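Late entry, evening session. Most of the bench is empty. Finally got around to the prediction I had been postponing all week. Sequence below, unchanged from the version circulated by S.P.
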Amino acid sequence: MATQVTAKAQRNSAFLRIAIALQTLTIFLQAVSAGLLLTSSYGETLHSAGARVMYGASMLYLLAAVLAWKPGGGSPRPIWHASGFLVLASVQVVLGIAHVPSVHVPLGVLMFALSMLALIRR
């Protein structure tokens, strides 16, 4: 029984690492598409689609954090981190729609740095 719980906890922990990596990658790709937004006709479409994917990746990170916490009864800290990322992603979307680049761009940089930190710590 303990072996099953341990194996499940390890799978969920691996899922958490993958979710963080996916979130980090999507945030990086948003920076790339922001550059394309400035230089090409299809940049706006790509950046808009990427925002949806990045938001989905943040939701996946939260789901993975809950699944990693639940079986082993470990620290809920990853859930708080993932929830924070989801809040930041929500703010990013609102700022992007409102066309407030003076806050949108630095917040994107901060999100990438925090996501990289979360990935390194996992």
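Two things to note before I forget:
The chain has four helices and no strands.
Residues 14 and 68 are 9 Å apart (CA to CA).
Will write this up properly tomorrow.
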